[in-house]
Specification:
The chain is an alpha+beta fold. An 8-stranded antiparallel barrel has the order 4-5-6-8-9-12-13-14. It has a two-stranded antiparallel ribbon with strand order 1-3. The protein is globular, with a radius of gyration of 22 Å.
Length: about 425
């Protein structure tokens, strides 16, 4: 994954050169003191200023980085040494089929309740309909062009995740109509549901981590493109509530993120009943939340790590077996040091816990039972990297770090984090 750091560096260079320096000792402001850039003008250019203070290019940066990260991960080889002999268990599958539409349900409940958002009914329905058409078109075109095999081996349409694309499309609709105009906490709920949808699809053995990142990219981009086209079609007709955008020069106090890490080298320990040095961590995905009253603040996270097999021979997953996942939750602190406008140095240190009782059954090449016993234990994590504010409400980070699971593994990782900020 050295390519990830190299390409990310080129992504950061033009941003670094484009903006003037910022005072690195300027402290964070409390949330109730953040200045919002309000423009209530109803003049000739109100569509582009009061209701759309940032360009389509700026708003497209985050989904483009999502997409680039998903392509670089290329993690569908993780279980190529695991031969599936039958059906695979898919926990949490049914709930996600409903969960993906929840942000849209919240959007329409608010609208029906009379809460005024960015658009009136005709304009909002047009934008939402266009989002659905664009998202479905891109998702299916990519699925049946790339034809990646799913983790459960049932189909060759894994990339990108359609459920995740739908969930992030709906979350972006909610953000556009109410998160930007009424309260950013509405967007927190929508994006949280979308991220949970993607993680559940990974846990259910239906998608790889990179499928989820690709789906998120398509979902966000589709909605942004749909709203851009709707703005061109409607002009100023049907606009109801102007956008409240945090001042880009103020450091965000709240960050809610979807993170993903990729193992680039690991030591696996054989004590504690684990005893499988050829079962190694591969890719992790999860969500985190951070409160930043100053340059440092508390953070919490929860996620899942997919495992890979590196033994000399293939192993076989019996009927109704499950690919191994390790769950982790933890808390710690996040630190941001401003460098130049929109760019900060970032670091995290987290102490957590992975619950035990996880047992996975396979067959070796001689048809003998092979058990993966993953014990409970302390699970610690730390990283350092660089963060770029892509817009007033979003940022992305690239980082490298260490993932330590007591008596199980020590793994060096590189990864990315995508944050909703305000």
């Amino acid at each position: 994954m050295k390519k990830l750091l190299l390409i990310s560096s080129f992504l950061l260079l033009p941003v670094a050169g484009a903006y003037a320096a910022i005072n690195p000792f300027k402290p964070y402001k409390p949330l109730n003191q953040i200045d919002y850039a309000l423009n209530w003008s109803l003049g000739q250019d109100s569509t582009s200023i009061a209701f759309k203070p940032e360009s389509f290019t700026q708003r497209s940066l985050l989904p483009m980085v999502f997409l680039a990260t998903s392509i670089l991960y290329d993690d569908n080889y993780l279980d190529k040494r695991i031969v599936k002999l039958g059906g695979i268990k898919s926990p949490a599958l049914e709930s996600v089929n409903i969960l993906q539409y929840s942000p849209a349900a919240i959007l329409y409940v608010l609208k029906l309740a009379g809460v005024e958002g960015r658009s009136d009914w005709p304009r909002m329905i047009t934008a939402d309909g266009a989002s659905i058409v664009i998202q479905a078109g891109i998702t299916n075109a990519v699925k049946y062009t790339i034809r990646r095999e799913r983790p459960d081996g049932r189909a060759n349409n894994s990339y990108p995740s359609g459920h995740t694309a739908t969930a992030f499309m709906c979350a972006q609709m909610l953000h556009k109509e109410y998160g930007e105009t009424v309260s950013p906490w509405i967007s927190v709920g929508g994006y949280g549901i979308a991220a949970t949808t993607g993680i559940f699809r990974t846990i259910a053995n239906r998608h790889w981590c990179s499928d989820v990142l690709g789906g998120a990219a398509i979902g966000i981009f589709s909605t942004e493109l749909a709203y851009e086209l709707t703005d061109i079609l409607f002009g100023e007709q049907g606009l109801r509530r102007a956008v409240m955008v945090p001042d880009i020069q103020d450091m965000p106090q709240w960050k809610f993120g979807l993170y993903s890490d990729y193992s680039i080298g690991s030591d696996v320990f054989t004590s504690g009943g684990y005893g499988n040095p050829d079962a190694r961590p591969a890719c992790s995905i999860g969500i985190d939340a951070t409160w930043m009253p100053w340059y440092i603040g508390p953070t919490v996270r929860a996620g899942v790590t997919q495992m890979k097999w590196t033994g000399a021979d293939d192993i076989y997953l019996p009927d109704q077996g499950s690919v191994a996942d390790v769950f982790t939750c933890g808390a710690g602190f996040d630190i941001d040091i401003p460098v130049i406008y929109r760019i900060t140095l970032n670091g995290q240190a987290i102490a957590g816990y992975s619950p035990g009782g996880n047992s996975y059954s396979f067959l070796d090449s001689q048809n003998q039972p092979l058990e993966w016993e993953i014990p409970s234990g302390m699970h610690c994590y730390g990283n350092i990297g660089m963060t770029v504010r892509t817009s007033a409400f979003s940022s992305f980070s690239v980082h490298g770090g260490l993932d330590y699971y007591d008596k199980v593994w020590r793994s060096f990782v590189v990864g990315a984090r995508f944050d909703y900020t305000f």
